[in-house]
Amino acid sequence: MRRRDLDDEERDLWRRAVRDVKPAKRGRAPARKPAAASERGPRRESAPAKSVSPAPALRKSAPKAHRIVGGGDPSLDRRAARGRIAIDATIDLHGLTQAEAHRRLLRFVERAHADDARLLLVITGKGRGGDAPRPGVLKSRFLDWAEEAPLRAIIARVGAASQRDGGAGAFYVFLKSKGAGKIPRP
Fold this sequence. Notes:
This protein is α+β, with helices and mostly antiparallel strands. The protein contains five helices and four strands; from the N terminus they run H-H-H-E-H-E-H-E-E. The protein has helices at 8-18, 37-40, 75-81, 98-114, 137-146, and strands at 89-92, 119-123, 155-160, 170-175. Helix 4 links the parallel strand 1 and strand 2 (119-123). The longest helix is centred in the middle third of the chain and has 17 residues, at 98-114.
């Protein structure tokens, strides 16, 4: 970027703004004189000084913690995120053990498939944050469960939910139609 020259009016304004400023000695900040007691005002009890922690180090952006399961049309995720496809049912797995979450998920998805549901919202939670963010156990296990039988036979696609539907702690689950995958009888 190229610097532009100041016009006469801007130069005059700058000179007036910095006329009281004296350059600091190299390597040292100017010492401040303590104010006189009369200038300070009434004495107050002061709170203990807070320790100032250094700014956290910048981390490289982590890769997305989720993966898309199944093939299908990625535009389905965008349409669901915009609310153009209605969510037929929702399940929240927060606070459950892995075994209980797996059992409830199986029953939920199978029941929704039997009811001809098209889109489900599964809320797993994001996991614990802190210094080293870890993906949630249920979040990771859900993606594994979606790729295993019997869910693999009825789930067409799993994608990340939009922020308004749970963000990184939730998934859209698109179900196959009832007739998909079945062998027609002669």
